[in-house]
Amino acid sequence: MQADRTLNLLIALDDSDRANQLMYLLRDAGYTLNSNLVDQNTDLQELLNQQEWDLLLTEMELKSANVRGITTALKNRQPDTAVVMISSTDDPESNVVVEGLRMGADYVVPTDEDQYFLLAVSNSLENVKQQRKRASWKQLYLDAESRCEGMMDNNKDAVAIVKEGTYIYSNPVYSRLFGFDDPDDMLMLPVIDTIGKTSQGQIKPYLKPLSADAQIESTSLNVTGTTTAEEDFDTTINISQILYQSETALQFLIDHRILSPEITGTLTAGEATSNLSDIQPKKVIATIDQAILKAARTEEQALAIYIRVDQIHEFKSHSDAAGAEKLLDAVYNFINQHSPRPQTLLKFADDVIVALHEINSLDKGRQYAEELSRAIAAQTFAAGEESLALSTSICVSALNHANQSAVACLKQCQQAIAGDDSNLRNTSAEARIYCFDNVEFDRFESEKATIEFGRLLLEKRLIGIAFQPIMALQGEPAEFYEVLMRPKVEDYPYEVPEDFIDRVFKTKVAGEVDRWVILESVKALAEKLKKSPDTKLFINLSATSILDPTFPGWLKIALQAAKVDPAHLIFQLREIDVGRHIDQSDQLIKQLAQLRARSALTHFGLAINPILVLDKLSFDFVKLDRVLVKASLEGGENAKGMVNLLNATQDMKPALIIPFVENPSIMPTLWEHGVDYIQGYYVDEPRPSMEFDFVESS
Asked: CATH homologous superfamily of domain 154-264?
């Protein structure tokens, strides 16, 4: 952002003199300011509605208002606005920078660091400029995509777009080929329903979730298609991977030269109209996409209310389509009259109505949905000669910058109502209202994928283990190995995060993984002890196992069954888990000691006062975090962190382990400070079996 254009500035500082000083600095740097002060009397929502802001200046120790509330409200409404926080402390050992970043700051600047402040502002505004430029280009891209879609509508080739095995677009030629009068009738239809049984095996590999990183080669498939009248026909589908609505998808194309004239004839002549002519899934998708774009451009969040009438399909089973249509019409008219706010109201399916509300609060949307559900339940609706009491299932989805597309939004709603997503909460057992804010949905989806993949690995016995030796410098001369979990798969599915192993230990499936790894480890250890009776294993435990009161009892039985002495095992607890669960960790350490097993504290040294944990709990080993080891190798001021910890722990009980020793350059420091053990590629890499020669390497 150029310094000569107007900077729209929000200021939330207790000291007005300091605020003026910062404004003078900005003006001297060439910025023209349009500023506004924010305090507890300020209507922040009104300010955010007035215009687009570029920068918020605030301070960590703000007393005149709630700084976290200000940054949260700002990021929810205008996520690309930069935040620079001023801190009164410049102590490098304090946690102030981390806390500031957690509160939404782009930079945390110490007081009186004027040059740092100006650089932070300049860099933050450049990021704002780039984010807004990306949003503008995205709008242009989507406009171009919309024009391309118009060209596909008038194409004589049969064209469809498929995502995750579902049609998300089909042109009139394609829909007529499969017996549909209206292309909208194919939206959200599973592809497999339009393919003959003899060809379903061919098409299934192309119905899986796609990854932009793994391009599918274009191909042609000779398949048997199935029409709505269950008539089979042979055709050739040309499949290619494309980007559609900014997401990876597949294009299905059938050349018009192999189609009959009645299929490829004039597109508008003689087209039959659907009985439910006012069901408009395509218009629903387009309207939601426009709302998402508007939210990205203006930060004006809207809500999509997905309303399913629960009894319509049952009614159709003993009535007719016309009666079901009248029933949906009656509900549609009732919702239209009941709504107190301007809205777009459209029919999405024969039992679903979608409303778009200009409500910027998920809580208000939930309240509206609950009131609407109760109002519908209190009414009776006429359909022919019948009068029915109806219930609804309603999903409220925030349309904001985090939404990927209308199709994804609608699919989330369908999954929520079907009960497929345990992360979406049912707010009322009677009303069946589901709410989600898409700012958090990506995190939920990632956690869900991690849990599901972890369970799959357990069920298919695809969790393997590797052993990395830990060599003694001056400690107990045993043959120590750390057990490392290694999934037996070459590549993770695209939806599983790359740091799966780290993430799985933060989920509820972690306890099951712990037990599997322990069983596999002691099985291997039992065999190893026959040849090397001094072998001992370090095994990691998650927070789930720390909190599980049944774990010590289970461990005792498992070791008895494997005929392994617990003295050959050391269980590793992470510093962050121990810090959060001091009492439970203390109890577990004592229970392990009663079994004659030992304990180790890993990832040590990242807490504000790491020595405090060692003073409170009795560990046998302590292993530093890799961050400290890496900083020591890089030199400079950061290198002091590891040396300070080595000095502080030198006279304490636990034996000290330094992991991630990758080369000999660090060895003099470790010898000088009395380190007991080292681990890393300098010693040996993790291997599937315990074959390291400790005698030759000592």
From this structure: PAS domain (3.30.450.20)
